[in-house]
C-alpha cells in the first residue's frame, strides 16, 4: 500500500477540521464525563480488533491499520460537515427572512 492513499484523507481532514475542531474540543472538555471518555477508548479498541486481529492502533506499525482509521475519520468529517452546512443554511435563511420582514434589508439595499 502506498503512502499516497493518505493524501485525500488528510485533505478532507484538514478542511473539515477548520469547521469542527473548536466546537468539538469545547464540548469534550466541558461536557463529557471522564467515565465516558474511557468507555469510548475501550469500545474503539474492541471494535477495531475483531476476530483476533490486531487493533488499528497496534504497537507494531507493520500490523496497524491506520489507513482504515483515517478513512473512517474522513468519512465522519464529511458527513458532519455536510450536516453542519445544511443546518447552517436553514438558520441563515430564517435570520434573513426575519430581517426582510422587519424592513431592515430594504433600508440597507437602498
TrEMBL record:
<keyword id="KW-0812">Transmembrane</keyword>
<dbReference type="GO" id="GO:0022857">
    <property type="term" value="F:transmembrane transporter activity"/>
</dbReference>
<keyword id="KW-0472">Membrane</keyword>
<keyword id="KW-1133">Transmembrane helix</keyword>
<comment type="similarity">
    <text>Belongs to the major facilitator superfamily. Proton-dependent oligopeptide transporter (POT/PTR) (TC 2.A.17) family.</text>
</comment>
<dbReference type="Pfam" id="PF00854">
    <property type="entry name" value="PTR2"/>
</dbReference>
<dbReference type="InterPro" id="IPR000109">
    <property type="entry name" value="POT_fam"/>
</dbReference>
<protein>
    <submittedName>
        <fullName>Uncharacterized protein</fullName>
    </submittedName>
</protein>
<comment type="similarity">
    <text>Belongs to the major facilitator superfamily. Phosphate:H(+) symporter (TC 2.A.1.9) family.</text>
</comment>
<dbReference type="InterPro" id="IPR036259">
    <property type="entry name" value="MFS_trans_sf"/>
</dbReference>
<dbReference type="GO" id="GO:0016020">
    <property type="term" value="C:membrane"/>
</dbReference>
Amino acid at each position: 500500500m502506498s503512502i499516497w492513499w493518505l493524501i485525500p484523507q488528510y485533505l478532507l481532514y484538514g478542511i473539515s477540521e477548520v469547521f469542527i475542531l473548536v466546537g468539538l474540543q469545547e464540548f469534550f472538555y466541558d461536557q463529557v464525563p471522564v467515565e465516558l471518555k474511557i468507555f469510548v477508548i475501550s469500545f474503539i479498541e474492541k471494535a477495531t480488533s475483531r476476530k483476533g486481529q490486531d487493533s488499528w492502533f497496534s504497537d507494531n506499525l507493520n500490523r496497524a491499520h491506520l489507513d482504515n482509521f483515517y478513512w473512517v475519520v474522513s468519512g465522519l468529517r464529511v458527513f458532519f460537515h455536510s450536516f453542519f452546512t445544511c443546518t447552517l443554511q436553514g438558520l441563515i435563511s430564517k435570520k434573513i427572512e426575519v430581517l426582510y420582514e422587519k424592513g431592515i434589508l430594504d433600508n440597507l439595499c437602498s
